Structure formats: structure tokens, C-alpha cells
From TrEMBL:
InterPro entries: KR_dom (IPR057326), NAD(P)-bd_dom_sf (IPR036291), SDR_fam (IPR002347). Belongs to the short-chain dehydrogenases/reductases (SDR) family. This is Short-subunit dehydrogenase. GO terms for molecular function: oxidoreductase activity. It comes from the Bacteria. Residues 29-218 form the Ketoreductase domain. SMART domains: PKS_KR. Keywords: Oxidoreductase.
Length: 286
């Protein structure tokens, strides 16, 4: 794994967590983390394990979750109670089983980190016989979190709870070629949650949308172009999500994103024409 470069320090500066505030928010509370077997969700589980909370870790790979639980529990300083629940959140019955499990917990549920996700990088031309790329990204990045949240909203309402959604900066910028399946599905849930947030706030449930840039996790490993691209560390990403528990901020964005959002409005035409020219050049060079 490349070390953190100067540019990365500038783009993704380190984050200070207020442990006292986090302790106050988490003490005796129950937090559900989806996608906890890897990357951001896994790192967040390690971070929150130092607090007096109950963590419910879910993902498809039960063996990975069990190994993470065992490793956390073998460390000094761990205080949380850790439950693991293996589920493929694209499967409605498995989500229902998770919801049934969460619903019977004596203290209910206080927070959900909607983090499980899947990315696909493929051009539309290479996807002509791969409609399933679009259904499977929508299944995990859109329908799964919608179904899960619909099930837990009554629990969160009861406890004045919190939802943190792990989104991507690309939901706020001009879409880039080759990522149509991923970007459309992440944007769909981002918009769903932004639309739902005022309703949820009125029920006493806070909502944070966390817009991450590239984060150095297994998700980006298959993309060769990202090997040396600037990326946020997974430790910083986990802290940013954890901070939303006490800040309850509506939005986290990297400091430089506003410039990108403005450029997305001003330069859509320029960007789309130049992207098309670049793709044509590549096609001709093949
Ligand atoms: N890495 C980035 O650059 C980046 C940037 C912006 C936003 N994000 C978002 O951050 C979130 C976490 O990604 P990551 O980078 O940490 O990737 P990751 O290391 O690949 O983790 C993805 C997690 O999602 C779980 N998952 C995938 N499909 C699932 C399914 N069908 N049912 C249940 N769980 C499933 C995976 O567990 P199993 O395989 O065990 O099921 C894994 O724990 C994603 O929502 C991603 O879109 C990532």
C-alpha cells in the first residue's frame, strides 16, 4: 500500500475525534454497520470498538466478520459488545432476517451506518450484454439501503437515532465515463436520502450524508489507474463517519469539493465534449 503523500495530506487532512463527545453519544447505544467485513466499515468497527456500545456488524462474508470480531476482542482497550450477522442485503429475506434480529434487541437501535456497496468500472460498450451490472449495482447501492432503512426508521424514531450514509463525491459532480452503473446507483440512494432527510429529521432522526473522495480500500484495488492516484486513508474515512455521531452534521464534503461542484455547473458542455474526444482517440488507437 503506498504511503500517504504530501498531496494526500493536503487533500485529505487528518481529522481529530472528540473522544468525550463520542463516548457520550455511544455509551449504552446500539449501532448497525453494513459492509463491516472490509474497507471503511471494517475500520469503523475497530474504531467504535473502543467505546461502551453494542455494534452489529453485517456483510455477506460471515467468516470475515467472525475473524474481525475475534481480532477486536483479542485487543486491549476493546469495550464494545460485538454481534455479527451475515446477510446478503440484495436478498429481501436476508434483510428481513437482519431486521427481525435488530427489532428484538432490548434497547432498540440508535444508529445505522449505511456503508455496504459495490462498484463496477466498465464502459457502456463493454456492457451491452451485461444488463445485470446495472441491476446488481442498483440492488446493493440503492434498493438494499432503502429496504433496510424503511425497516429501521421506527426503531430510530423511538431512540432519537442517527443515519450516516457513506456516499461518494461523484454523486455531486459531473458523472465520468465508464462508471455509469456505480454512479447512477449511488446517486439514486443519495437523492432518496436527501429527499427523506427532512421527513426523518421531523421524526427526531438525524441524517448525515458523507461524500467521500477516493478512499484506499479493497474496492479500488482492481482499478489500475487508482494505484497511484491520491486517495484518503481508510483510518481518516472511519473517523469522519464516527464524527457524525456527535456532530450530526447534514453533510461531510472534502474542503475542495465546492470548486468541483461549481465547475460541474459551469463546464458541463466542455467536459462532455472533451471526454468524448478522449474516448474517440483511445478507440482509434486500439
Ligand atoms: N473506496 C472508495 O474510494 C469509496 C469512495 C466513496 C464512497 N465509497 C463507498 O464506501 C462504501 C464502502 O466501500 P469500501 O471502499 O470500504 O469497499 P469494500 O472494502 O469493498 O467494502 C464493501 C463492503 O460492502 C459489503 N457488501 C458488498 N456487497 C454486499 C451485499 N450484497 N450484501 C451485504 N454487504 C455487501 C462487503 O462485504 P461482503 O463482500 O462480505 O458482503 C464489504 O464489507 C461503499 O458504499 C462505497 O460505495 C467508497
Amino acid at each position: 500500500m503506498p504511503s500517504y503523500t504530501l498531496l494526500e495530506r493536503l487533500l485529505f487532512p487528518s481529522v481529530r475525534l472528540n473522544a468525550r463527545k463520542l463516548e457520550r453519544r455511544l455509551s449504552g447505544k446500539t449501532v448497525l454497520i453494513t459492509g463491516a467485513s472490509s474497507g471503511i466499515g471494517e475500520r469503523l468497527a475497530y474504531l467504535l470498538a473502543g467505546f461502551d456500545a453494542r455494534l452489529i456488524l453485517t456483510a455477506r462474508r460471515g467468516d470475515k466478520l467472525a475473524a474481525i470480531k475475534a481480532d477486536i476482542e483479542s485487543r486491549t482497550g476493546f469495550r464494545a459488545a460485538i454481534d455479527i450477522f451475515a446477510a446478503d442485503l440484495r436478498e429481501p429475506e436476508q434483510t428481513d432476517a437482519l431486521l427481525a434480529y435488530v427489532s428484538q434487541l432490548p434497547g432498540g437501535l440508535d444508529a445505522v451506518v449505511s456503508n455496504a456497496g459495490h462498484s463496477i468500472r466498465r464502459s457502456v460498450r463493454e456492457s451491452l450484454d451485461r444488463y445485470h451490472d446495472f441491476t446488481r449495482t442498483m440492488a446493493i447501492n440503492y434498493f438494499a439501503p432503502v429496504r433496510l432503512l424503511l425497516g429501521v426508521i421506527p426503531l430510530l424514531e423511538k431512540n432519537g437515532g442517527h443515519i450516516a450514509n457513506v456516499s461518494t463525491v461523484s454523486a455531486l459532480l459531473l458523472p465520468v465515463p465508464n462508471w455509469a452503473a456505480y454512479q447512477a446507483s449511488k446517486s439514486a440512494f443519495d437523492v432518496w436520502l436527501r429527499s427523506a432527510a427532512p421527513e426523518l429529521n421531523a421524526l427526531g432522526v438525524s441524517v448525515s450524508s458523507v461524500y467521500f473522495p477516493l478512499v484506499r480500500t479493497p474496492m479500488i484495488a482492481p482499478t489500475a489507474a487508482y494505484k497511484n492516484a491520491p486517495a484518503m486513508s481508510v483510518e481518516i474515512a472511519a473517523k469522519i463517519v464516527a464524527r457524525t455521531f456527535y456532530s450530526r452534521c447534514r453533510v461531510y464534503k472534502p474542503w475542495w469539493l465546492a470548486a468541483g461542484e461549481l465547475a460541474s455547473v459551469l463546464f458541463r458542455g466542455v467536459w462532455e465534449r472533451s471526454a468524448a474526444r478522449k474516448i474517440s482517440r483511445k478507440e482509434r488507437a486500439r
